[in-house]
Specification:
Helices cover 9% and strands 53% of the residues. It is mostly beta strands. Strands 1, 4, 5, 6, 7, 8, 9, 10, 11, 12, 13, 14 and 15 form a 13-stranded mixed β-sheet that branches. Strands 16, 17, 18, 19, 20, 21, 22, 23, 24 and 25 form a ten-stranded antiparallel β-sheet that branches. Strand 21 and strand 22 form a beta hairpin. The two termini are 26 Å apart. The relative contact order is 0.14. About 2% of the residues have low confidence.
Length: 400
């Protein structure tokens, strides 16, 4: 009976999504534009948008002017709330995800919560490059807009878990990703079950001095994607498996990818991220790259970012993700390169922590692959080399 009820609700949401996207002007005015076209419709146009400003406005949405503060900034918004959404928009357009990870020299521990309205995912994983040990856990909840779903809010309703709140998931697993204003730190904690037994981990990132890339991208004139990215911040923590008598302590570099979006009906992307300490310069290097989404009219991505010792540079270039054949997607090596060759590397997947949903007219597939990267990054005349560093790479396609 409960399964039938859940299926009925999901089918209803799917049908509503279809109607809204076939005839969007009937139910709401916030229609989407072709990728990159929205940048031409905002004040300042494309060139104005590409300039990264030092300080961000307090709020993403200007209630008085009834418009969004589209742009890119080195500091996050204190209030990342959207305008008031009607129920149809909330169920079909509103998407949120929050990923954090700690990259050590030969290991990675990561966690993510993803809320898509009608379905929600929470994932956690640990990968040791030296021993090739990999463990993961994924929890899925249908009808995630209900109280059981992952929420990018604290219990007191804080509007952003980037600067003053938490992303929490408490269903079969306990996962939280919180910003602590008093310490300027992001604190992540997980208590879940891997195949080998109970797994706990906690880590903290020092965000007191590093710059980040934060932006509001116009999918439509009144339809934003709000994104915050931190790459390569000092981090430390621990993890403990059920069989361990004492926790294993780990230090490295932390990364964050936080998004709240009124997403386009059809969304595709490739995304990659990793951090390492350069052997020659001892610099902290963190990088996040993307293609296929958040692009300008020329096809250059506007969310790729490089951090060197806390200083952020937006990388407004086209990136080419060359993948293996579908049947060997999780086996063979990928190639990732900027169009000018300043950034180029190979990615070898170890495992995927993917999620898929196929609900008639709602269809999605996400491969969040964990593995290793080998290559070079050239920036301002300095070449940073890396070999078999822990890394992640995503391939995503969704009709949602």
């Amino acid at each position: 009976m409960c399964q039938l009820f859940g299926f009925t609700i999901v089918a209803t949401v799917a049908a509503l999504s279809y109607v809204m996207n076939m005839c969007p002007e009937v139910l709401y005015p916030d229609t989407e534009e072709p990728t990159g076209k929205g940048l031409e419709l905002i004040p300042g146009g494309v060139e104005g948008y590409l300039k990264v400003q030092e300080e961000a406005p307090v709020s993403v949405y200007d209630e008085e002017a009834k418009r969004y503060n589209f742009g890119r900034f080195k500091k996050p918004f204190k209030n990342a709330a959207t305008h008031k959404l009607n129920p149809a928009q909330y169920l079909t357009q509103h998407k949120e995800w929050h990923w954090t990870a700690l990259f050590a020299q030969d290991a990675i521990i990561g966690v993510a919560t993803l809320q898509f309205g009608y379905v929600s995912h929470a994932i956690a994983y640990h990968y040791n490059v030296t021993t090739d040990e990999f463990e993961k856990q994924k929890t899925e909840i249908l009808l995630a807009g209900l109280p059981l779903g992952a929420k990018h809010f604290t219990e007191d309703g804080a509007p952003s878990s980037v600067v003053n709140g938490c992303s929490k998931f408490n269903f079969m697993s306990e996962m939280s990703q919180c910003y602590v204003p008093d310490t300027s730190a992001a604190v992540v904690s997980v208590n879940t079950t891997f195949p080998s037994g109970r797994f706990e981990m906690e880590y903290e990132m020092d965000l007191s001095s590093d710059e980040s890339l934060n932006f509001v991208y116009p999918i439509g004139k009144n339809r934003p994607s709000i994104v915050s990215k931190m790459s390569g911040a000092p981090a430390k923590g621990w993890f403990k498996r059920e069989a361990d008598t004492v926790p294993t302590h780990i230090t490295g570099l932390g990364m964050i990818d936080w998004t709240r979006s009124l997403a386009a009906r059809y969304t595709v992307w490739n995304w990659a991220a990793f951090s390492f300490v350069d052997a020659k310069t001892s610099s902290r290097v963190g990088i996040q790259l993307s293609a296929g989404v958040y692009e300008d009219p020329e096809g250059r991505g506007v969310e790729s970012v490089l951090n060197i010792d806390g200083k952020m540079t937006a990388i407004d270039k086209k990136f080419i993700f060359t993948k293996p054949t579908e049947e060997r997607l999780l086996i063979d090596t990928w190639k990732v390169a900027s169009e000018d060759g300043d950034i180029q590397y190979t990615f070898t997947p170890r495992e995927s922590v993917g999620g898929a949903f196929h609900l008639y007219i709602l269809d999605g597939n996400l491969q969040h692959m964990v593995g290793t990267a080998t290559g070079t990054i050239t920036h301002k005349g300095v070449t940073y080399e890396f070999k078999k560093v822990p890394a992640v790479l995503e391939e995503h396609e969704a009709l949602w």
